[in-house]
Write a structure and sequence with these properties.
It contains six helices and eight strands, in the order ββαβαβββαββααα. It is of the alpha/beta class and 176 residues long. The protein has one domain. The strands form two sheets. Strands 1-3-4-5-6-7 form a six-stranded mixed sheet. A two-stranded antiparallel sheet has the order 2-8.
Length: 176
């Protein structure tokens, strides 16, 4: 059974001791994420989080893990609420400056740690926001607006024969 995770963690200590945290975080406590989700949607769901802290063979303190969170987003085609599951893996290296970020191996993303304590809620919220799709869309079969688009695809184009082309004058000017 997953336990409730702490809001604040000491990442350096967790890395030095090689700890693993497993648990749940409430999505309701993530105000910035809430702004990205469907308006009025019940976001009483929880993110399931597994995090491993450690130090690799190069001496880099890291945080790796997996996050799964069911959310409701607004479909940009029909503007209705749709279910979406964020399922991501993360691998972050703890750094103290931007110069250190440039020297990181490609397998890591930088995590700037200037304070001994870090808000786990804010970290998970940030990772979830980065994983959300830019444009959320229902599957075609599930979206009411997509069925209207599909119905229109079989219609005949509007006939324009017999009407004068307004761009003929421009073509004549171009030829001069």
């Amino acid at each position: 059974m997953l336990e409730r995770l702490p809001d604040i963690i000491k990442v350096q200590n967790l890395a030095e001791t090689g700890r693993i945290l497993e648990g749940k975080l409430s999505l309701a406590s993530m105000q910035r994420l809430d702004l990205q989700l469907a308006e009025g949607a019940d976001n009483a769901n929880e993110a399931e989080v597994t995090l491993e802290f450690g130090i690799d063979v190069q001496g880099i303190k890291f945080l790796s893990g997996h996050i799964v969170a069911p959310v409701k987003m607004a479909c940009q085609r029909c503007m209705g609420a749709m279910d979406y599951t964020v399922d991501i893996s993360i691998k972050l290296a703890m750094i103290k400056s931007e110069e250190e970020a440039e020297e990181l191996p490609d397998r890591y993303e930088p995590l700037l740690v200037n304070e001994p304590e870090l808000s786990l809620v804010e970290l998970i919220e940030e990772e979830l926001m980065l994983a959300l799709p830019i444009v959320a869309l229902h599957e075609n079969d599930d979206c009411p607006a997509a069925t209207v688009d599909n119905d229109l695809q079989g219609t005949q184009p509007i006939e324009t024969e017999g009407k004068p082309n307004p761009f003929v004058v421009l073509a004549q000017l171009k030829n001069k």
